[in-house]
Amino acid sequence: SGPAVIANPFENGFGSLVQGALESSNVNVVQQLVDMIETQRAYEVSSKSITAVDEMMQFISRNL
Fold this sequence. Notes:
With 64 residues, the chain is mostly helical. 55% of the residues lie in helices and 0% in strands.
């Protein structure tokens, strides 16, 4: 990214400082939780499908 640029706030287009302010995150926790639950459910469905196919193949191989 290059060398550090050191300057005073409000000078030459630099930003401002606000004492006591909290920095907010760029992550929406609720949306990330919903996405994680959807992914987990999709994984469970895929896993159950693979298990069902495996059981069907075992059944077929035993009865032929």
